[in-house]
Design a protein that fits this description.
Elements (H helix, E strand, L loop, with lengths): L1 H15 L11 E9 L13 E13 L3 E16 L2 E16 L7 E18 L6 E17 L4 E8 L5 E8 L1
Antiparallel strand pairs: 1-2, 1-8, 2-3, 3-4, 4-5, 5-6, 6-7, 7-8
């Protein structure tokens, strides 16, 4: 029974990935995930993953080279520490180049930039000193999507932004 179940799962796993495609002009993708790794305050904060989502649409096809996509990014990080709570929110535009000048199979390899605004706050439990800050966001990142089929897959990105590593699910429509 276990062998049959394993065989059925393996068949679905491998055949579902045979029909996926790279990112193309007109495609739309949504990434939803968590992030690990932070900037300069990492040692004093409780390591709770950030939450992030990004959306993009393929708008320009460069034959035999790649596709340019544009969209948006949103991220949120919350972390308690001794004496208070730190929060950080980022809202940014997203420009992405999807590499297609070599065969990547089910992988969509890309690199891009985020530019937008961030809002952070330090809220202390003793109400002695609270601080809020807004700042300009500029982020360079590289990532990959592994599409299991034409609609569903996984993504991972390395960059700065809300966290150094972002990973989660990818939906393409």
């Amino acid at each position: 029974m276990i062998k049959k179940l394993f065989l059925a799962v393996a068949v679905v796993f491998f055949t579902s990935s045979m029909f996926s495609q790279n990112f193309e002009k007109g495609d739309k993708a949504l990434n939803v995930g968590i992030g690990l790794g932070w900037g300069s305050y990492a040692t004093s904060l409780t390591p709770i993953p950030s939450f992030n989502a990004s959306f993009e649409a393929g708008i320009v096809d460069i034959p035999n080279v790649g596709v340019i996509g544009v969209g948006g990014f949103g991220g949120f990080r919350f972390s308690p520490y001794t004496g208070g709570v730190y929060t950080n929110t980022i809202i940014a535009a997203r420009g992405v180049f999807h590499f297609q000048f070599f065969d990547t199979g089910n992988f969509d390899l890309y690199a891009g930039i985020h530019t937008g605004f961030g809002f952070s706050s330090w809220n202390y439990t003793d109400d002695f000193f609270d601080s809020t800050n807004s700042y300009f966001v500029d982020d360079v990142f590289a990532g990959a999507r592994w599409m299991k089929n034409d609609k569903f897959g996984f993504f991972a990105e390395l960059g700065y932004g809300i966290s150094y590593l972002k990973a989660g699910i990818a939906l393409k429509f």
